[in-house]
């Protein structure tokens, strides 16, 4: 949202509706970071069933230079919930700066291989874990050794699927080989 051509002394009235939002002053270069000493309404929770008497906060324009603001709730700013007073032609760039702070939308894949050797027995397990910014995760495990029967018997695959780190693999492999971690 934009207010163009606000003059010194103008009063901007913010009415807060359902949910829990803020109006927090920031800067053009750091759209989702509060400006020290800047305007900040704080969080104003409004229940879903409230239909009147919404909280109101006012802001008095003290200069004709741009004011940059955002909602400090969770990732609202990074999702584009920003506001400007007198932005000129820079509002789109300001909003793009905020959107650029969002978590990457690509899937992250990490593959780890652990090999444990003990008393002539070698076990190699490879784990591939994928996660996305939406929180969905998947983990798969495979063993590259001849110990697949032992691996399944000792529950390594189940533990690997439930776990997510190499330390889980090392612990499972160490148990399988009879060493103490």
Automatic annotation (TrEMBL):
Q: Where are the transmembrane segments?
A: 159-180
Which Gene3D superfamilies does UniProt cross-reference here? Cupredoxins - blue copper proteins (2.60.40.420)
Mind telling me which PANTHER family this protein's record contains? EXTRACELLULAR SERINE-RICH PROTEIN, SERINE-RICH PROTEIN, PUTATIVE-RELATED-RELATED
Could you list the residue ranges forming a coiled coil in this record? none
- Keyword field: Membrane, Transmembrane, Transmembrane helix
The organism's place on the tree of life at top rank = Eukaryota
Region: Disordered; residue ranges are 127-148
Descriptive protein name: Phytocyanin domain-containing protein
